[in-house]
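#lab-general

N.A. 3:47 PM
ok so I finally got the sequence cleaned up, no stray characters, all 295 residues accounted for. can someone with queue access submit it? mine expired

B.Y. 3:52 PM
send it over

N.A. 3:53 PM
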Amino acid sequence: MHNYLELFLEYLKSERNVSKNTVESYFSDLQDFLAHVDINVEITEEKVAGYLEILKNKNFQVSTIKRKVSALKQFFRFLVAEELIEKNPMTFIRQPKSCRALPKIISEDAVKKLRESTSTLPLEEQIRADLILYLLYGSGLRVSELISLKMNSFVEDKFIRIFGKGRKERIVPVTHQVIELLKQWNEIKPFSVWLFPSKNPEKHITRQRIFQIIKDVAAMSGVDPEKVSPHVLRHAFATHVLDHGADLLSVKKMLGHESISTTEIYTHVSRARLKGVVNEYHPLSDKHLTRKSVR
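B.Y. 4:20 PM
back already:
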């Protein structure tokens, strides 16, 4: 079965052209499954169900279990298609139901504090931090997309060519601040094809280093570092541009979402914020009526 797993991963890379992060995720999930079952005998639906029950009893998040189920479905579908097994044990296994959690965001004021706080950094670190912030929050990039940017990713000084999930290409507009910062950064950064090279200029900066930079900036700004991450800035980008009147389809394209329903979750965030404003400030809200009754 472990040999089958290697074949499946090679199929993902060579034929499906999925990202390195996705391949690693599949490998981790499937390795965990194979460690919980006897691979010397036929893997049945009952064994899969037993494994999922173990995950549930260990209080794994529903989103994590759904990801593992998805990996198992694709793995066994591949094995059947390649005639490596006869029966698919995932045929009647269903995804667990879950309420879709609203994405975490930070306020526009908090973003402003992040941007202003970088002025205390040495010039090279300041320009790099500013460029990272403006690309994450100003263009809504994923951290994996950010670190893989090259100097030739910029088109006509107005757009970035992004290769997102599944190596799907999209063109994303950039702010004028990015263009100005890019000119400054290009003059001082080490020579490399990468926009953000690591200490070895032949390699790009790591995801972990981007997280560290964001956390450090948050700490300097007075914003809770635990509430700030590259993905939180991406969520904030989507929510804030919708708050300011952007249309849903445009935001979907900029974020690189497959389905409009994925983007729609940010409208729910806006509605939740509006509801909070009404509850806080409207004279007929429960909060204000309670205050009056106390008086």
